[in-house]
Write a structure and sequence with these properties.
The relative contact order is 0.14. The chain has eleven helices and 13 strands. 36% of the residues lie in helices and 17% in strands. By secondary structure, the protein is α/β, with parallel strands linked by helices. Helix 3 crosses helix 4, helix 6 packs across helix 7 and helix 8 runs parallel beside helix 9.
Length: 350
């Protein structure tokens, strides 16, 4: 491998290996990073309190800020940074008890897992809302008195979004691990409404490079127009990315729809398009959900897992042009990756 190609691969790996699920499994903070500040927690005696458990990640500051703005007139919001390996379930319980929280908002998988481990020791844990967690449906099923807003945008939303940009999307190839069979089947049914059939290749729960290579080759030869990649970090190990995904996608040149923005890159033939929940709209949706829970006397009865109401779209036009993407359609995309002049279009609520 040439030194230029090696540098390109390493740059992609640096992003890919922490990308999935985006913000859903934040790393333990290191001593070299500046502390993340979510601001102070002012409380007023006449208002109920909501505890917000969130990893100390600066990317989450806009979400926390918007949540506070939406809730400040109705409830006290006590924000507590939590990290797996640093915070214990007992710490979580102490935090909730000190705040006297009527409800808890859990931001990402790690916060939800910590809360889940504590809540299992309680006869009646407070109502909780799960946000920014990959496959929130599964977490929701393990946490009593919880509801959630899904992180994954339905595949059909992304596939039809890519189609509107001029890319041919008549059938989609999907590579997934066997544990996600039911999820992919649900997505296949939704895509069928838009007449986008899936051609699938299922891998073992511990995928091997040779099997991933074979799956990419088979899907390419089957005539699929695009690959849709579910949010599964087990398919993005260093070895799989370096030995299968990058070289074989470069070889077969298929557009790839991904579920996290950091995989849409201008310097690597990988993610072409992504649709993710819009952070500002997600905060507003979560606040509305909390108000409904308040009106129901802090009960989540009747609230299951809902889809995000608004998405933000990302595209790498340098790749998209290979597949027929029209320059004139880029005005419909929120973030143009690799073009700073067009990188933010601010279409929250679209």
């Amino acid at each position: 491998m040439s030194s230029i190609r090696r540098h390109w691969v390493q740059r992609f790996l640096a992003a890919a290996l922490v990308a999935v699920p985006a913000l859903a499994s934040c790393q333990r903070p290191t001593g070299t990073r500046a502390p993340v500040s979510f601001g102070v927690n002012p409380t007023r005696a006449n208002l109920p309190t909501v505890s917000l458990l969130v990893p100390p990640d600066e990317r989450l500051v806009p979400l926390v800020t918007q949540l506070r703005l939406e809730l400040e007139n109705e409830v006290n919001v006590v924000v507590t940074p939590v990290s797996e390996g640093v915070t214990s379930p007992i710490d979580v319980g102490d935090t909730i008890a000190r705040a006297g929280a009527k409800a808890v908002i859990l931001v990402n998988n790690s916060a939800a897992r910590l809360y889940r481990d504590w809540s299992r020791t309680q006869a009646s844990p407070p109502a909780s809302i799960i946000l920014l967690a990959s496959f929130a449906e599964r977490l929701h099923a393990t946490i009593a008195n919880s509801t959630a807003i899904a992180y994954e945008v339905p595949a059909v939303t992304s596939l039809t979004g890519l189609r509107t940009l001029g890319v041919k999307v008549d059938q989609a190839g999907v590579i997934y691990r066997s544990k996600f069979r039911d999820y992919v089947e649900d997505q296949r049914k939704l895509a069928g409404v838009e007449k986008i059939p899936f051609v699938v290749r299922e891998l073992d729960d511990v995928p091997h490079v040779r099997d991933l290579k074979a799956a990419i080759v088979e899907l390419s030869r089957s005539g699929v127009d695009v690959l849709w990649l579910p949010n599964d970090n087990a398919l993005l190990t260093r070895q799989l990315v370096q030995e299968a995904w990058l070289p074989y996608l470069e070889r077969f040149r298929l557009p790839v729809v991904v579920g996290v923005p950091s995989l849409v890159r201008a310097d690597a033939n990988f993610g072409t398009y992504a649709a993710i929940p819009d952070m500002e709209a997600l905060a507003i949706q979560a606040a509305d959900l909390l108000f409904e829970i308040m009106e129901d006397d802090w009960s989540v009865t009747g609230h299951g897992v809902t889809l995000p109401v608004s998405v933000k779209t990302y595209v790498a036009p340098q790749l998209g042009q290979r597949y027929g993407m029209q320059q004139t359609t880029l005005q419909n995309v929120d973030v143009i990756v690799g073009d700073e002049a067009l990188s933010t279009r601010g279409k929250a609520g679209r």
